[in-house]
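Hypothesis: this fold can be encoded by more than one sequence.
Test: take the structure tokens below, design a sequence, compare later.
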């Protein structure tokens, strides 16, 4: 027989990894992938790609790494590649060509390849650096959102780009990397900066009263200006009292608009005079006219602006503003408009108005047939009729109305009766049958108040006999209904069919049982839950109880819930052969209804008992949760907008669903008044779709008209224009939204216009005109001297682009470079070609009339005058339409020593004599080219930019407040006023601050510093007053009382008195410090002493309470002890570690502490006996003690090696394995000093 005596303990031990194998990682499951349109979105795929790039010999960092001496070694390049592969998870292969060019092949995921390529280029290729100046205001566009744009640029170009921080006072961007990468990065950065440099924004100070002159009649002037310049001009409406006009767009257009508007403003300001006239307030609306048409007519006819006070202003003064010779005709027109209408009143009782109006207004039309210009107004609740119109027609209309009213009064009567409102609907009858019958029989009109009016009065109007007969019948009906009762019962509509039963058998049984009760169910189309019972009181109550019991039984067994499950997952809910859905139905005893495959609904309906339905719902939702991360949200969109949002054949809503990853957007069924729209799909896509849906809803709410037009697909880009310029003009002028078809749309020629009725019509007309022009292309030519060609094609053809944009997108073709020809060809619509010709000839005439002016500014100031990236010069050239050329920077004698070096030729620059007032140096002379007036203005603007330095006296103590935290405040001052502020070092203790910049900016910065000093002086005085300090001596025993629970007491004192209260850090110190205004400190001190006196007057006694009762007194989370303290106005202190465990200290007023002590003793007496009984029962439940001496028999030990613990646990130790509370009658606290095995930190 074999034995195991020779087997070692190591052989019988188990390895920890074998005995306790690791669980598989959650990401490596082998679940069968879900098929369908969602499967691709959520399946995990590894998309690898390969990228190859080369490093030329001259740019290789390790040129000898492939030499013979490195045979058998990995080499430095290989080590670097291994590190990069480990870091990024890609595969890198290298090879060397005959010309010593290093070829690197990187394989992996796209994002990883970008990172690896950057690492390889940085470490294997020699690095270069370069820098360029970009205006600081453009830096944020280079960075992008959260720096994302800069990161992408660094990855694409394999460079490191350093942008100065906000606190660094320079605009230099540094780029490190390979030569090719640096060039590419510099190009991309320059493109971003150039785009931002082209935009401008101006606020023009134009007084509100001159806005009509700037806008012109019906805004014609401002519209024409916007069309000519392409700029957007925002003039505040009449209701906004603002004296500024905002112009935005490309710089040249903005500057042109600014010049035109300010010229108009200055001219009118100089020439205009005012005349004020008094006109009755009621006639102001005729001066204004419908939609202000009369005011615009006066402005167009006379050039005079008429200012009418608002309707809520009691003033009757109308002001006319314009040129002296035009005020007279305008005044005549104002009086003519005001006196064109008169008013008159006709007395007529309110209840007669409807008879005067007649059916569909027939009677009043007959009366006023001969007075077409008369307007008659009836006001509810007033016994008069207002007649308005020309004087002669008003008089005749009043006579006709008075005669008709007199006739009505002679043959009409009325009566009012009081009938309880609860009977009104029964008097009306089903479908108005009862009241209609009475009306037909008596020939009267009966008005019954609606429920919202809360009135009992019924009014009868008509011939006297009919009124009396109807009154009698209504009172008899009310008398009969006094003895009846009506009661409503709420029954869910889905149970109505069940209660009625097949062929009405169910409700027939109920009606037979309560044959005196009328049971009325609501119509199915109303979707109401109210069932009405009417009849004798006792029978109605019994029927109500009977129906209520039936409803409760139905509710218990027909609880219903809806769960939205993505349609593609329904097959997973059903399972193979219906196994999954059948199992859920059997386990939960519910009915589960899924929509048909043809249905678009994704709602699964579960019916059954409530707890069973909830269980089934959780099971179904768990299946979906396992399959995908689906989110569902509800968006409130007014139901009247649903059809507009869906669009023709669902085109608009389908574009949103496609753009947002295929989310499902469900609208309520047609005819529903629900506003809830459901969006379901992945979380990110749902949020995106929700945002777009709300934006489209808001747009449609304000623009509710839709029009469609057709245009050839190849015309669309011309209709849209370069960068959307053409279609943007149409949108801005009409306010309409214009939607062109996407690539996926079947109909590529359909263009949709959404907006107001007028805006859509205007937009349609403009687009059709553009389409017609595109169909009518002509070619023209103009002769331009070749010396001027450069002006048109410079700056990437900016002048040509402006001509094209201004004249309908015409194409202007100049001869190629090197061809000496004057012929310039223009293609486009006929009118546009003629306009472009005229504009080109105007530009040529301006070029021929140009002169050259010299402006002398010392070379050292040129950079400041130019501004960052030449911004100042660009602004001046655009504003004054001139060319400005700065001289090149001088080089001393071919690169010799600079000026001041002591050389004999130090005063010679390029072999020329030094400058003098009569002979300025060439490097100080700036050349300005343009029209004479413009050149002089540009010269003055340049001289105004020459910086000056001014010393400002600011007390040294205020310097740190001027600088601010980390220089934030001084940087803001410099940015706001475009100056440089130099603050002396702290060790100098100087009060002088130097401000450098253009004179106007320096003056504004100086004023700002002076204002800041005034504020700081006031703050300094306030700090001195608020730094008063006093101390109060309080026994440390009362300090916790003054602090209060969680600092409530002391924080309240601090807030009430606006002071700082500091308690001593050591518990044996008694001084409390109070800091603040002197008066507040004294008040806080008085309150502290008052509180201390109250505490000193308190008495403390001891109450001996068994410690086992203490938890009962304290209660859960201290609620019990707090209630006792609040009820008896005392403070309870429980024993600490070294105190008598049974003693509780009670502090408070003498009567209160004894009442509290009695209460605590009562609690002890009530609960102590229960505690003793529980202890006795637990002692009986204890197991008998085991024989500690007997050696227990143990089986073969189970040994594990390489385990994370260093010793086996002692299972006999009650400290390591404590018993559960209640199992043996006691509890053993676990040993918290250490865990099994070595301690882990």
């Amino acid at each position: 027989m074999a034995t195991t005596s020779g087997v070692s303990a190591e052989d019988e031990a188990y390895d920890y990894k074998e005995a306790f194998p690791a669980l598989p990682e959650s990401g490596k499951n082998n679940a069968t992938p879900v098929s369908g349109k969602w499967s691709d979105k959520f399946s995990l795929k590894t998309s690898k790609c390969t990228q190859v790039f080369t490093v030329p010999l001259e740019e290789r960092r390790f040129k000898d790494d492939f030499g013979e001496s490195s045979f058998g070694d990995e080499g430095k390049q290989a080590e670097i590649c291994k590190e990069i592969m480990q870091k990024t998870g890609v595969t890198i292969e290298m090879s060397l060509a005959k010309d010593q060019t290093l070829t690197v092949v990187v394989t992996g995921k796209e994002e990883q390849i970008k990172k690896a390529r950057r690492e390889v280029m940085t470490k294997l290729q020699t690095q270069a650096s370069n820098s360029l100046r970009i205006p600081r205001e453009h830096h944020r566009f280079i960075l992008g959102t959260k720096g994302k744009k800069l990161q992408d640029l660094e990855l694409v170009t394999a460079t490191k780009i350093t942008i100065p921080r906000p606190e660094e006072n320079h605009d230099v961007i540094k780029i490190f990397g390979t030569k090719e990468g640096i060039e590419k990065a510099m190009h991309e950065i320059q493109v971003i900066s150039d785009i931002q440099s082209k935009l401008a924004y101006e606020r023009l100070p134009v007084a509100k009263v001159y806005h009509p002159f700037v806008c012109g009649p019906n805004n014609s002037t401002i519209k024409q200006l916007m069309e000519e310049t392409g700029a957007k001009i925002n003039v505040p409406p009449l209701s906004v009292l603002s004296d500024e006009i905002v112009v935005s767009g490309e710089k040249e257009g903005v500057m042109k608009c600014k010049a035109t508007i300010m010229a108009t403003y200055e001219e009118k300001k100089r020439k205009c005079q005012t005349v004020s006239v008094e006109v009755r307030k009621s006639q102001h609306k005729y001066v204004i006219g419908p939609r202000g048409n009369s005011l615009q007519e006066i402005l167009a006819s006379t050039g005079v602006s008429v200012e009418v006070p608002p309707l809520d202003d009691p003033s009757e003064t109308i002001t006319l503003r314009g040129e002296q010779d035009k005020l007279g005709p305008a005044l005549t027109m104002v009086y003519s408009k005001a006196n064109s209408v008169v008013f008159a009143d006709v007395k007529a009782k309110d209840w007669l108005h409807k008879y005067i109006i007649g059916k569909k207004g027939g009677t009043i039309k007959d009366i006023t047939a001969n007075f077409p210009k008369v307007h008659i107004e009836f006001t509810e609740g007033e016994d008069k009729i207002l007649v308005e119109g020309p004087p002669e027609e008003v008089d005749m209309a009043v006579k006709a109305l008075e005669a008709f009213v007199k006739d009505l009064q002679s043959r009409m009567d009325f009566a009012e009766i009081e009938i309880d409102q609860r009977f009104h609907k029964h008097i009306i009858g089903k479908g108005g049958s009862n009241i209609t019958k009475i009306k037909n029989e008596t020939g009267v009109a009966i008005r019954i108040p609606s429920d919202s009016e809360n009135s009992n009065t019924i009014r009868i109007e008509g011939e006297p006999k009919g009124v009396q007969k109807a009154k009698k019948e209504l009172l008899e009906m009310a008398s009969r209904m006094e003895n009846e009762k009506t009661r409503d019962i709420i029954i869910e509509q889905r149970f109505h069919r069940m209660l009625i039963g097949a062929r009405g058998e169910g409700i027939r049984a109920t009606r037979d049982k309560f044959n005196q009760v009328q049971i009325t169910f609501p119509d199915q189309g109303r979707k109401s839950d109210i069932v009405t019972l009417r009849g004798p009181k006792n029978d109605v109550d019994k029927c109500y109880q009977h129906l209520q019991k039936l409803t409760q039984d139905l509710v218990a067994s027909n609880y219903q819930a809806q769960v939205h499950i993505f349609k593609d997952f329904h097959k997973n809910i059903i399972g193979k052969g219906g196994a999954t859905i059948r199992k859920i139905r059997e386990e939960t005893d519910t009915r589960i209804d899924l929509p048909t495959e043809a249905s678009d609904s994704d709602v699964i309906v579960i019916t059954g008992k409530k707890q069973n339905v909830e269980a089934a719902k959780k099971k179904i939702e768990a299946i979906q949760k396992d399959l995908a991360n689906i989110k569902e949200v509800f968006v409130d969109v007014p139901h009247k907008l649903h059809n507009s949002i869906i669009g023709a054949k669902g085109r608009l809503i389908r574009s949103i669903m496609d753009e947002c990853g295929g989310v499902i957007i469900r609208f309520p069924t047609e005819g529903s008044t629900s506003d809830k729209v459901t969006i379901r799909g992945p979380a990110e896509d749902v949020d995106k779709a929700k945002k777009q849906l709300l934006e489209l809803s808001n747009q449609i709410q304000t623009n509710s008209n839709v029009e469609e037009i057709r245009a050839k697909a190849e015309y669309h880009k011309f209709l849209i224009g370069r960068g959307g310029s053409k279609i943007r003009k149409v949108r801005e002028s009409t306010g309409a939204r214009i939607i062109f078809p996407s690539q996926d749309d079947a109909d590529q020629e359909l263009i949709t216009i959404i907006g107001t009725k007028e805006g859509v019509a205007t937009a349609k007309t403009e687009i059709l005109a553009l389409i017609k022009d595109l169909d009518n292309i002509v070619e023209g030519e103009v002769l331009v001297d070749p010396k001027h060609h450069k002006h048109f094609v410079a700056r990437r053809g900016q002048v040509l682009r402006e001509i094209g944009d201004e004249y309908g997108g015409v194409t202007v073709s100049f001869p190629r470079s090197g061809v000496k020809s004057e012929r310039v060809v223009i293609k486009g619509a006929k009118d546009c070609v003629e306009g472009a010709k005229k504009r080109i000839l105007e530009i040529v005439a301006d070029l021929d009339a140009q002169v050259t002016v010299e402006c002398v500014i010392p070379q050292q100031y040129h950079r400041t005058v130019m501004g960052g990236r030449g911004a100042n010069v660009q602004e001046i050239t655009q504003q004054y339409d001139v060319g400005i050329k700065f001289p090149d920077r001088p080089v001393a004698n071919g690169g010799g020593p600079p000026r001041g070096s002591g050389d004999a030729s130090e005063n010679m620059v390029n072999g020329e004599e030094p400058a003098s007032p009569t002979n300025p140096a060439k490097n100080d002379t700036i050349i300005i080219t343009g029209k004479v007036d413009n050149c002089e203005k540009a010269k003055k603007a340049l001289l105004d930019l020459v910086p000056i330095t001014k010393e400002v006296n600011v007390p040294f103590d205020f310097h740190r407040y001027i600088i601010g935290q980390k220089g934030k405040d001084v940087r803001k001052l410099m940015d706001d006023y475009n100056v440089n502020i130099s603050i002396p070092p702290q060790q100098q203790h100087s009060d002088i601050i130097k401000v450098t910049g253009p004179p106007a900016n320096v003056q504004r910065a100086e004023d700002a510093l002076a204002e800041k000093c005034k504020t700081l002086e006031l703050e300094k005085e306030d700090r001195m007053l608020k730094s008063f300090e006093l101390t109060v001596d309080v026994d440390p025993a009362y300090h916790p009382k003054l602090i209060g629970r969680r600092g409530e007491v002391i924080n309240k004192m601090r807030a009430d008195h606006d002071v700082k209260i500091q308690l001593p850090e050591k518990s044996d110190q008694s001084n409390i410090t109070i800091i603040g205004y002197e008066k507040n400190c004294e008040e806080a001190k008085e309150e502290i002493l008052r509180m201390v006196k109250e505490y000193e007057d308190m008495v403390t006694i001891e109450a001996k309470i068994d410690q086992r009762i203490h938890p009962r007194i304290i209660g859960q989370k201290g609620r019990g002890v707090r209630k006792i303290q609040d009820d008896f106005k005392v403070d309870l202190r429980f024993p600490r570690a070294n105190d008598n465990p049974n003693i509780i200290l009670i502090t408070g007023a003498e009567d209160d502490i004894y009442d509290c002590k009695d209460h605590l003793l009562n609690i002890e007496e009530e609960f102590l006996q229960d505690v003793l009984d529980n202890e006795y029962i637990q002692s009986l439940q204890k197991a008998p003690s085991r024989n500690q001496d007997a050696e227990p028999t143990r089986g073969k030990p189970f040994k594990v090696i390489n385990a994370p613990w260093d010793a086996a646990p002692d299972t006999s130790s009650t400290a390591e394995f404590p018993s559960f509370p209640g199992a043996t009658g006691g509890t053993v606290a676990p040993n918290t000093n250490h865990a099994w095995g070595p301690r882990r930190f």
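The chain is about 45% helix and 20% strand. The chain has a mean pLDDT of 78.
Hypothesis status: open.
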